Amino acid sequence: SQQGEEDPQALSIQEGENATMNCSYKTSINNLQWYRQNSGRGLVHLILIRSNEREKHSGRLRVTLDTSKKSSSLLITASRAADTASYFCATDEAGANSKLTFGKGITLSVRP
Amino acid sequence: DAGVIQSPRHEVTEMGQEVTLRCKPISGHNSLFWYRQTMMRGLELLIYFNNNVPIDDSGMPEDRFSAKMPNASFSTLKIQPSEPRDSAVYFCASNRQGGSPLHFGNGTRLTVT
Q: What is the pLDDT of residue A11?
């Protein structure tokens, strides 16, 4: 079963705009991670936020975590055409033997 | 760091044939995961190993699927007999310890006709 569910399923924006993607989950977690997947390739880890953290930054990425609402958001600022990819959230569920469960992903298209 | 290496990259086989997918994790990583990705079901965890021992195989669809990790540098996922509904991209991933970021291979695209 899917633990994380991303929203929206697809997002199309103009280059230079910001992209916001959301993820909701159901159970207690140790951490939440965001990954990116380019067509025909494996997933690549972007950023990890622990359950006791509320916000984290990495370059043009900003991740927030609200454990009371069981939700996270990924913000990509000043998007580029090269950001076009699928984005996934994954949760490390507490007490689940450290297996990561992925959502179905968000398809982001950045128009040049 | 060569990354996680999977082979073959593509596999086309006929229904009923045996299929073996291979994975070499990153050296020093203690956990190895097999995932399957389809449009309909997304990314599903099939099985994962910790220190070469299978920890959770609850995602393995049925007895036709089996996975082994004979040593720290090699794992196989076998489907016997294969069926058209097994067509998917199969990913192997590894990490250093539980909950740490996963490193994915580029996957094996399996087509069963």
A: 93
